[in-house]
Each structure stands twice: as C-alpha cells, then as structure tokens.
Amino acid sequence: DTGVSQDPRHKITKRGQNVTFRCDPISEHNRLYWYRQTLGQGPEFLTYFQNEAQLEKSRLLSDRFSAERPKGSFSTLEIQRTEQGDSAMYLCASSSASSGNTIYFGEGSWLTVV
Amino acid sequence: AQTVTQSQPEMSVQEAETVTLSCTYDTSESDYYLFWYKQPPSRQMILVIRQEAYKQQNATENRFSVNFQKAAKSFSLKISDSQLGDAAMYFCAPTQEEGAQKLVFGQGTRLTINP
C-alpha cells in the first residue's frame, strides 16, 4: 500500500494560466475527494467521486474548476484561467467501505499564482 | 450547514504531560464517523484516531484517546505522555453525510510541546 499520491507537489503559475493536478488514490479505494486548504484554515470540501461518478460538487468549485476520474482510479483537478485567489494547497483523499470508511489524505499539491 | 468548533486556537503542554483538545459539532445525522487529524509543518494530513458514532465505547490508539459524548455532540482528544513529535495542528472532522462520507473540518488547534 503506497498511500494517496499527488503530483505535482508544488506549482507556481502566472495568473491566467491553466494548471492540472493528479491524484492516485489507495488502490482498492472507490471514493475519492478533493479539498482545498488556505493558510490558517481547515480544509474545505471541493468535490467527491464514487468510482468514476462525480456525485457532489461544492459551491466553492467555480466554473473554472473541473475534476475527472475517467476510469474510477486516478483523478485530475484542472483550474482554468487561474487567479491569485486560487493560491492554496489542494488535498486529495480516498476511502472505501472495505477499509472501514477511514479517509486517507495525500501530501497535497501547493499552488501559487503570481 | 454542518459546523465544527474547536474553541482552542492554541494549546501548549510540557513534554510527558497530558493535554486535551476540545471539539464540538453540529449534525442532523444519526450515524456518522468522527476523526482527529494532525497536520505537522510538512502539511500532510495524518490520521490520529477515528470513532464510529454508533459505538458507545471511546476509541483509543496508543497514547491517543477520545471522549465522545454523542448527545452533547462533543468529541475531545486526549494525548497522554506528550512527545515533541506531537507538535502540529490538530483538526477535528466529523463526516457530514453517511453515503458521501464528506469531512467537515474545524479551524484547528495548534499544539506546542515544551521540552
């Protein structure tokens, strides 16, 4: 078990550019989550997949954000036309009923928009 | 919307002593899970302990234990024999919906361990 992995760990981009983050969940986990965390705050829920189906999206997820999990394994989170307010850490997590519904987090992807 | 309150923004404890971090939450669910996570300076969210709401017995994991009061919607974390490596931000997080298992986080408590 290699845990939840995220790539890249750090990304600096210019305002207006597009960025994409990848998450590989724990292999047997069918649920996958994206959260966003800004400095001094707790993580905030963005979206949730069960297998390949995106079942819920937070109102925090503007139209510039899109997430996919095409084969029910890895997921991508794309931010288009980045803004300085998008600067945050983007956390991916996964869980499954077979693993006791415990939610495990990856190390996060830091985004800095300059 | 569900809310989670961690009323202690910062706590400090002497090494080897015991400290308790408080958490209260609001939920309309009857069956849910509660977690405590720690986030050291590396920023990775590390699971400390979990509790199923239907279980009356408080969870224990080595030096970490919880005091879960379902009726009062309270879920405190006790750390015994505090170690320098326990220094971190601690987040309380109940799940919001049984199916989705979404976590709702509090603002966190920064724990400092004094040698």
Overview of the structural elements:
The complex is a heterodimer of chains A (about 110) and B (about 120). Chain A has strands at about 5, 10-15, 20-25, 30-35, 45-50, 55, 65-70, 75-80, 90-95, 105, 110-114. In chain A, the strands form two sheets. In chain A, strands 2, 4, 5, 6, 9, 10 and 11 form a seven-stranded mixed sheet that branches. The radius of gyration of chain A is 13 Å and the shape is globular. In chain A, a hairpin with an 8-residue loop joins strand 9 and strand 10. With about 110 residues, chain A is mostly beta strands. Chain B has about 120 residues and is an all-beta fold. Chain B has no helices and eleven strands. In chain B, the strands form three sheets. In chain B, strands 2-11-10-5-6 form a five-stranded mixed sheet, with no helix packed on it. In chain B, strands 3-9-8-7 form a four-stranded antiparallel sheet, with no helix packed on it. In chain B, a hairpin with a 6-residue loop joins strand 5 and strand 6. The relative contact order of chain B is 0.34. The interface of A and B includes residues 43 and 89 of A.
